[in-house]
Specification:
CATH topology: Thrombin, subunit H
Strand order of the largest sheet: 1-2-3-6-5-4
Shape: globular
Number of domains: 1
Helix content: 10-25%
Strand content: 35-45%
CATH architecture: Beta Barrel
Largest sheet: 6 strands, antiparallel, barrel
Length: 126
């Protein structure tokens, strides 16, 4: 029997790769900081934070995700569930679980990510 031990195996929802510019602000902080959304699932997102300052697990973040098919950013709130330093870089990668996001906006993001993933998957099969 093969043990399933990776983070990917323990996730509730499938994650779809995506690359969207975003920004965040920690609760009770001022000043937005840049990040990139690297993947999305029904429950949350993966992010890369371009700072030398690590965000703590459990931190509450307000997010604004720039979406190509919408003039205004998609707004969400989430809790940092895990975060770690990228090897050889000064960036941090992490997972954020949504606590607040408009349902329609979440489905727009998921549809966009799925369509992008499907197009790339179809290209690989050719």
């Amino acid at each position: 029997m093969v043990k399933r031990s990776s983070i990917e195996d323990r996730r509730k929802y499938k994650r779809f790769p995506i690359e969207l510019s975003a920004r965040y602000v920690k609760e009770n902080d001022r000043g937005w900081k840049g990040c990139t959304v690297t993947n999305i699932s029904r429950g949350g997102i993966g992010i890369i934070v371009y700072l030398q300052e690590k965000i703590s697990g459990g931190a509450l973040l307000k997010l604004e995700i720039m979406f190509p098919k919408k003039e205004e950013p998609i707004k969400a709130t989430g809790v940092v569930r895990w975060i770690k330093e990228q090897k050889g870089e000064k960036n941090f990668i992490g997972g954020v679980e949504f606590t607040e996001i408009d349902a329609e906006d979440k489905w727009k993001l998921l549809d966009y990510a799925y369509d992008t993933w499907k197009e790339e998957d179809d290209e690989e099969e050719e």
